[in-house]
Amino acid sequence: MKPRLPRHLAPVTVVLAATLALAGCGASSSSTSSASGATTGGATGATGDCAGTPAGAAYEVGNAGVTVTGELNAAPVVKLGPDTSKVTKLQVCDLVQGTGTAVAAGSSITAQYIGIGAVSGKKFDASWDRGQPSTFSLDKVIAGWTNGLPGMKLGGRRLLVIPGDQAYGANPPSAEIAANEALVFVVDAVPTPVPTVGPHVEGTAGVTVTGDAGKAPTIAVTPETAKVTQLTISDITVGTGAEAKAGATVSMQYVGALASTGKTFDSSWKTGKAVSFDLTQIITGIADGVPGMKVGGRRLIVMTGAQGFGANPPANLGVKANEPLVFVVDLVSVP
Protein backbone atom coordinates (compact mmCIF):
# COMPACT_ATOMS: atom_id res chain seq x y z
CA MET A 1 0.00 0.00 0.00
CA LYS A 2 1.25 3.44 -0.87
CA PRO A 3 2.67 5.48 2.00
CA ARG A 4 0.03 7.97 3.06
CA LEU A 5 0.27 11.49 1.79
CA PRO A 6 -0.79 14.17 4.22
CA ARG A 7 -4.58 13.91 4.11
CA HIS A 8 -5.07 17.68 4.26
CA LEU A 9 -4.51 18.45 0.62
CA ALA A 10 -6.79 15.74 -0.46
CA PRO A 11 -10.23 16.75 -0.99
CA VAL A 12 -12.51 14.80 1.09
CA THR A 13 -13.54 13.84 -2.40
CA VAL A 14 -10.31 12.11 -3.07
CA VAL A 15 -8.92 11.74 0.22
CA LEU A 16 -5.57 13.10 -0.16
CA ALA A 17 -5.70 10.35 -2.34
CA ALA A 18 -2.92 8.30 -1.61
CA THR A 19 -3.78 5.22 0.27
CA LEU A 20 -6.33 4.73 -2.27
CA ALA A 21 -8.56 7.19 -1.20
CA LEU A 22 -9.59 3.69 -0.40
CA ALA A 23 -9.06 4.97 3.04
CA GLY A 24 -12.64 6.08 2.85
CA CYS A 25 -12.41 9.59 4.21
CA GLY A 26 -15.45 11.70 3.62
CA ALA A 27 -17.69 8.79 2.73
CA SER A 28 -20.98 8.37 4.48
CA SER A 29 -21.94 5.15 6.21
CA SER A 30 -24.96 2.97 5.90
CA SER A 31 -26.57 1.67 9.05
CA THR A 32 -27.89 -1.53 7.54
CA SER A 33 -26.34 -4.77 6.42
CA SER A 34 -26.27 -3.60 2.83
CA ALA A 35 -25.06 -0.49 1.05
CA SER A 36 -27.01 0.98 -1.80
CA GLY A 37 -26.95 3.81 -4.26
CA ALA A 38 -29.10 5.14 -7.04
CA THR A 39 -29.63 2.78 -9.92
CA THR A 40 -31.18 3.20 -13.29
CA GLY A 41 -33.08 -0.05 -13.14
CA GLY A 42 -32.24 -3.56 -14.16
CA ALA A 43 -29.64 -5.88 -12.75
CA THR A 44 -26.10 -6.22 -13.95
CA GLY A 45 -24.10 -9.33 -13.40
CA ALA A 46 -25.94 -11.62 -11.01
CA THR A 47 -23.23 -12.64 -8.61
CA GLY A 48 -24.27 -16.25 -8.59
CA ASP A 49 -22.60 -16.52 -11.97
CA CYS A 50 -18.95 -15.52 -12.30
CA ALA A 51 -18.61 -17.12 -15.72
CA GLY A 52 -16.02 -15.40 -17.84
CA THR A 53 -13.95 -14.16 -14.91
CA PRO A 54 -10.32 -14.81 -15.79
CA ALA A 55 -8.45 -17.18 -13.50
CA GLY A 56 -5.69 -15.70 -11.38
CA ALA A 57 -3.02 -17.19 -9.18
CA ALA A 58 -3.55 -14.48 -6.57
CA TYR A 59 -7.29 -15.03 -6.12
CA GLU A 60 -10.19 -17.43 -6.37
CA VAL A 61 -13.09 -16.85 -8.74
CA GLY A 62 -16.12 -16.44 -6.51
CA ASN A 63 -18.39 -14.00 -4.69
CA ALA A 64 -18.31 -15.11 -1.02
CA GLY A 65 -22.10 -14.88 -0.92
CA VAL A 66 -22.32 -11.25 -2.05
CA THR A 67 -25.19 -10.17 -4.31
CA VAL A 68 -24.85 -7.07 -6.51
CA THR A 69 -27.62 -5.47 -8.54
CA GLY A 70 -27.94 -2.22 -10.47
CA GLU A 71 -27.11 -0.82 -13.87
CA LEU A 72 -23.57 -0.37 -15.06
CA ASN A 73 -22.57 3.32 -14.89
CA ALA A 74 -24.69 3.82 -11.77
CA ALA A 75 -24.02 3.06 -8.11
CA PRO A 76 -24.64 -0.63 -7.39
CA VAL A 77 -26.76 -2.13 -4.63
CA VAL A 78 -24.73 -4.60 -2.58
CA LYS A 79 -26.05 -7.26 -0.20
CA LEU A 80 -23.67 -9.32 1.88
CA GLY A 81 -24.03 -13.03 2.62
CA PRO A 82 -23.82 -14.67 6.05
CA ASP A 83 -20.30 -15.94 5.38
CA THR A 84 -18.89 -12.92 3.51
CA SER A 85 -16.94 -11.70 6.54
CA LYS A 86 -15.29 -15.11 6.96
CA VAL A 87 -13.42 -14.99 3.63
CA THR A 88 -9.78 -16.06 3.93
CA LYS A 89 -8.68 -15.77 0.30
CA LEU A 90 -9.28 -12.95 -2.16
CA GLN A 91 -12.47 -13.57 -4.16
CA VAL A 92 -12.99 -12.04 -7.61
CA CYS A 93 -16.10 -12.07 -9.78
CA ASP A 94 -16.68 -10.18 -13.05
CA LEU A 95 -20.28 -9.00 -12.93
CA VAL A 96 -20.02 -7.32 -16.32
CA GLN A 97 -17.43 -8.34 -18.88
CA GLY A 98 -15.65 -5.30 -20.24
CA THR A 99 -14.69 -5.06 -23.89
CA GLY A 100 -11.77 -2.64 -23.60
CA THR A 101 -8.13 -3.02 -22.72
CA ALA A 102 -7.33 -5.35 -19.82
CA VAL A 103 -5.82 -3.76 -16.71
CA ALA A 104 -2.16 -4.76 -16.41
CA ALA A 105 -0.44 -5.58 -13.15
CA GLY A 106 1.18 -2.49 -11.66
CA SER A 107 -0.61 -0.13 -14.04
CA SER A 108 -3.16 2.56 -13.21
CA ILE A 109 -6.92 2.21 -13.25
CA THR A 110 -9.62 4.85 -13.29
CA ALA A 111 -12.64 3.57 -11.45
CA GLN A 112 -16.00 4.23 -9.92
CA TYR A 113 -16.26 2.10 -6.80
CA ILE A 114 -18.04 1.39 -3.55
CA GLY A 115 -16.37 -0.08 -0.46
CA ILE A 116 -18.25 -1.90 2.31
CA GLY A 117 -17.07 -3.48 5.55
CA ALA A 118 -17.80 -7.20 5.47
CA VAL A 119 -18.38 -7.31 9.24
CA SER A 120 -20.19 -4.01 9.76
CA GLY A 121 -22.09 -4.11 6.48
CA LYS A 122 -21.49 -0.36 6.28
CA LYS A 123 -20.39 1.64 3.26
CA PHE A 124 -17.18 3.44 4.20
CA ASP A 125 -16.29 4.96 0.84
CA ALA A 126 -17.81 5.42 -2.61
CA SER A 127 -16.67 7.44 -5.58
CA TRP A 128 -20.32 7.50 -6.65
CA ASP A 129 -21.09 9.78 -3.71
CA ARG A 130 -18.57 12.28 -5.04
CA GLY A 131 -19.87 12.21 -8.59
CA GLN A 132 -16.52 11.41 -10.20
CA PRO A 133 -14.17 8.47 -10.64
CA SER A 134 -10.70 8.25 -9.11
CA THR A 135 -7.44 7.07 -10.65
CA PHE A 136 -5.14 4.72 -8.74
CA SER A 137 -1.79 3.08 -9.39
CA LEU A 138 -2.16 -0.62 -8.59
CA ASP A 139 1.28 -0.79 -7.02
CA LYS A 140 0.30 1.87 -4.48
CA VAL A 141 -2.99 0.61 -3.07
CA ILE A 142 -4.20 -2.16 -0.77
CA ALA A 143 -3.14 -5.68 -1.77
CA GLY A 144 -6.70 -6.71 -2.57
CA TRP A 145 -6.78 -4.16 -5.39
CA THR A 146 -3.20 -4.86 -6.47
CA ASN A 147 -3.93 -8.58 -6.78
CA GLY A 148 -7.59 -8.50 -7.73
CA LEU A 149 -7.90 -5.96 -10.54
CA PRO A 150 -5.31 -7.07 -13.14
CA GLY A 151 -7.11 -8.76 -16.02
CA MET A 152 -10.27 -6.69 -15.63
CA LYS A 153 -11.26 -5.00 -18.89
CA LEU A 154 -12.25 -1.40 -19.44
CA GLY A 155 -16.02 -1.06 -19.35
CA GLY A 156 -16.44 -3.94 -16.92
CA ARG A 157 -17.71 -4.25 -13.35
CA ARG A 158 -15.82 -6.44 -10.89
CA LEU A 159 -16.59 -7.61 -7.37
CA LEU A 160 -13.71 -7.97 -4.93
CA VAL A 161 -14.14 -9.65 -1.56
CA ILE A 162 -10.90 -8.98 0.27
CA PRO A 163 -9.69 -10.73 3.44
CA GLY A 164 -8.41 -8.46 6.18
CA ASP A 165 -4.76 -9.22 5.58
CA GLN A 166 -5.08 -7.90 1.99
CA ALA A 167 -7.12 -4.89 3.07
CA TYR A 168 -5.93 -2.63 5.91
CA GLY A 169 -4.89 -5.33 8.35
CA ALA A 170 -4.43 -4.37 11.97
CA ASN A 171 -4.14 -0.63 11.27
CA PRO A 172 -7.15 0.61 9.27
CA PRO A 173 -7.10 4.30 8.29
CA SER A 174 -10.62 4.97 9.53
CA ALA A 175 -12.68 4.13 12.61
CA GLU A 176 -15.33 2.93 10.19
CA ILE A 177 -13.19 -0.10 9.39
CA ALA A 178 -12.35 -2.63 12.11
CA ALA A 179 -8.87 -4.09 12.52
CA ASN A 180 -8.40 -7.04 10.15
CA GLU A 181 -11.90 -6.59 8.73
CA ALA A 182 -12.64 -8.15 5.34
CA LEU A 183 -13.84 -5.63 2.76
CA VAL A 184 -16.16 -5.78 -0.25
CA PHE A 185 -15.63 -3.55 -3.28
CA VAL A 186 -17.58 -3.23 -6.51
CA VAL A 187 -15.36 -1.58 -9.11
CA ASP A 188 -16.31 -0.19 -12.53
CA ALA A 189 -13.32 0.37 -14.83
CA VAL A 190 -13.93 3.60 -16.76
CA PRO A 191 -11.90 5.65 -19.25
CA THR A 192 -9.25 7.89 -17.70
CA PRO A 193 -10.24 11.54 -18.15
CA VAL A 194 -7.86 13.89 -19.92
CA PRO A 195 -6.57 16.37 -17.30
CA THR A 196 -7.53 19.99 -17.87
CA VAL A 197 -6.96 23.19 -15.95
CA GLY A 198 -9.96 25.16 -14.75
CA PRO A 199 -10.37 28.94 -15.01
CA HIS A 200 -8.31 31.23 -12.79
CA VAL A 201 -7.22 34.83 -12.53
CA GLU A 202 -3.96 36.57 -11.66
CA GLY A 203 -3.78 38.41 -8.36
CA THR A 204 -3.12 38.17 -4.64
CA ALA A 205 -6.66 38.55 -3.18
CA GLY A 206 -5.14 40.79 -0.52
CA VAL A 207 -2.54 38.25 0.64
CA THR A 208 1.03 39.21 1.52
CA VAL A 209 3.73 36.54 1.50
CA THR A 210 7.15 37.05 3.08
CA GLY A 211 10.14 34.80 3.65
CA ASP A 212 13.27 33.70 1.85
CA ALA A 213 13.29 31.11 -0.91
CA GLY A 214 13.97 27.64 0.40
CA LYS A 215 12.38 28.41 3.76
CA ALA A 216 8.83 28.33 5.09
CA PRO A 217 6.94 31.46 4.02
CA THR A 218 4.80 33.67 6.25
CA ILE A 219 1.26 34.44 5.11
CA ALA A 220 -0.77 37.55 6.04
CA VAL A 221 -4.37 37.98 4.87
CA THR A 222 -6.83 40.88 4.70
CA PRO A 223 -10.65 40.99 4.79
CA GLU A 224 -10.55 40.84 0.99
CA THR A 225 -8.98 37.37 1.05
CA ALA A 226 -11.96 35.51 2.48
CA LYS A 227 -14.23 37.11 -0.15
CA VAL A 228 -12.45 35.40 -3.06
CA THR A 229 -14.92 34.19 -5.69
CA GLN A 230 -12.57 32.47 -8.14
CA LEU A 231 -9.22 30.72 -8.13
CA THR A 232 -6.53 33.39 -7.86
CA ILE A 233 -2.81 32.80 -8.39
CA SER A 234 0.34 34.91 -8.23
CA ASP A 235 3.92 33.84 -8.95
CA ILE A 236 6.13 35.12 -6.15
CA THR A 237 9.21 33.54 -7.74
CA VAL A 238 9.23 32.24 -11.30
CA GLY A 239 11.11 28.96 -11.58
CA THR A 240 13.57 28.08 -14.32
CA GLY A 241 13.14 24.30 -14.39
CA ALA A 242 10.62 21.89 -15.88
CA GLU A 243 7.01 22.99 -16.05
CA ALA A 244 4.21 21.24 -14.17
CA LYS A 245 1.48 20.03 -16.50
CA ALA A 246 -2.17 19.36 -15.74
CA GLY A 247 -2.61 15.92 -14.22
CA ALA A 248 1.11 15.43 -13.55
CA THR A 249 2.73 14.12 -10.39
CA VAL A 250 4.68 16.87 -8.68
CA SER A 251 6.89 17.23 -5.60
CA MET A 252 6.40 20.37 -3.58
CA GLN A 253 6.74 22.17 -0.27
CA TYR A 254 3.62 24.04 0.82
CA VAL A 255 1.86 26.00 3.52
CA GLY A 256 -1.93 26.04 3.81
CA ALA A 257 -3.71 28.83 5.71
CA LEU A 258 -7.27 29.91 6.40
CA ALA A 259 -8.31 32.81 4.20
CA SER A 260 -10.35 34.30 7.04
CA THR A 261 -7.55 34.51 9.63
CA GLY A 262 -4.27 33.59 7.96
CA LYS A 263 -3.82 30.79 10.51
CA THR A 264 -1.73 27.91 9.18
CA PHE A 265 -3.60 24.60 9.23
CA ASP A 266 -0.98 22.52 7.47
CA SER A 267 2.63 22.77 6.30
CA SER A 268 5.09 20.37 4.73
CA TRP A 269 7.84 22.59 6.16
CA LYS A 270 7.18 21.07 9.59
CA THR A 271 9.09 17.99 8.47
CA GLY A 272 11.34 19.81 6.04
CA LYS A 273 10.55 17.28 3.33
CA ALA A 274 8.82 17.88 0.02
CA VAL A 275 5.69 15.84 -0.66
CA SER A 276 4.64 14.27 -3.96
CA PHE A 277 1.09 14.64 -5.23
CA ASP A 278 -0.80 13.36 -8.23
CA LEU A 279 -2.64 16.42 -9.51
CA THR A 280 -5.56 14.24 -10.59
CA GLN A 281 -6.04 13.19 -6.96
CA ILE A 282 -6.01 16.44 -5.08
CA ILE A 283 -8.26 19.35 -4.17
CA THR A 284 -9.35 21.42 -7.15
CA GLY A 285 -7.51 24.57 -6.08
CA ILE A 286 -4.17 22.76 -6.13
CA ALA A 287 -4.99 20.68 -9.23
CA ASP A 288 -5.81 23.86 -11.16
CA GLY A 289 -3.41 26.22 -9.40
CA VAL A 290 -0.10 24.37 -9.79
CA PRO A 291 0.01 23.65 -13.56
CA GLY A 292 2.15 26.23 -15.33
CA MET A 293 4.60 26.54 -12.43
CA LYS A 294 8.23 25.75 -13.14
CA VAL A 295 10.59 23.91 -10.82
CA GLY A 296 12.25 26.37 -8.45
CA GLY A 297 9.21 28.64 -8.40
CA ARG A 298 7.02 29.80 -5.53
CA ARG A 299 3.31 30.46 -6.16
CA LEU A 300 0.49 31.93 -4.10
CA ILE A 301 -2.85 30.18 -4.64
CA VAL A 302 -6.07 31.55 -3.14
CA MET A 303 -9.13 29.35 -3.59
CA THR A 304 -12.82 29.39 -2.85
CA GLY A 305 -14.27 26.95 -0.35
CA ALA A 306 -15.65 24.79 -3.15
CA GLN A 307 -12.16 24.55 -4.66
CA GLY A 308 -10.75 23.52 -1.28
CA PHE A 309 -12.45 21.02 1.02
CA GLY A 310 -16.02 22.01 0.25
CA ALA A 311 -18.80 21.17 2.67
CA ASN A 312 -16.94 18.30 4.37
CA PRO A 313 -13.43 19.36 5.42
CA PRO A 314 -11.22 16.93 7.36
CA ALA A 315 -12.24 17.12 11.00
CA ASN A 316 -8.75 17.58 12.47
CA LEU A 317 -7.58 20.65 10.54
CA GLY A 318 -9.76 23.40 11.96
CA VAL A 319 -11.12 24.23 8.50
CA LYS A 320 -14.79 25.23 8.41
CA ALA A 321 -17.22 24.00 5.78
CA ASN A 322 -16.79 25.87 2.47
CA GLU A 323 -13.98 28.01 3.88
CA PRO A 324 -11.69 29.74 1.34
CA LEU A 325 -8.05 28.72 1.66
CA VAL A 326 -4.61 30.15 0.92
CA PHE A 327 -1.63 28.05 -0.17
CA VAL A 328 1.95 29.01 -0.89
CA VAL A 329 3.57 26.30 -2.99
CA ASP A 330 7.26 25.77 -3.81
CA LEU A 331 7.65 23.42 -6.79
CA VAL A 332 10.58 21.11 -6.07
CA SER A 333 10.46 18.65 -8.93
CA VAL A 334 8.34 17.24 -11.72
CA PRO A 335 9.20 13.50 -11.97
Order of helices and strands: EEEEEEEEHEEEEEEEEEHEE
CATH-derived topology of the largest domain: Chitinase A, domain 3
What is the count of structural domains? 2
- What percent of residues are in strands? 25-35%
Low-confidence stretches: 1-47
Number of helices: 2
Percentage of residues assigned to helices: under 10%
Structural class: mainly beta
What's the SSE blueprint?
Layout: E1 34-35, E2 60-61, E3 67-69, E4 77-79, E5 91-96, E6 108-117, E7 123-126, E8 134-137, H1 143-148, E9 157-162, E10 183-189, E11 201-202, E12 208-210, E13 218-220, E14 232-237, E15 249-258, E16 264-267, E17 275-278, H2 284-289, E18 298-303, E19 325-333
Parallel strand pairs: 2-5, 11-14
Antiparallel strand pairs: 1-4, 3-4, 5-9, 6-7, 6-8, 6-10, 9-10, 12-13, 14-18, 15-16, 15-17, 15-19, 18-19
Short description, anyone?
With 335 residues, the chain is mostly beta strands.
Structural features, described:
The chain is mainly beta. The protein has two domains: 183 residues, Chitinase A, domain 3, CATH 3.10.50; 133 residues, Chitinase A, domain 3, CATH 3.10.50.40. It has two helices and 19 strands. Strands 2, 5, 6, 7, 8, 9 and 10 form a seven-stranded mixed β-sheet that branches. The longest helix is centred in the middle third of the chain and has 6 residues. It is elongated, with a radius of gyration of 21 Å. The protein starts with 33 loop residues before the first strand and ends with a strand. The N terminus is likely disordered.
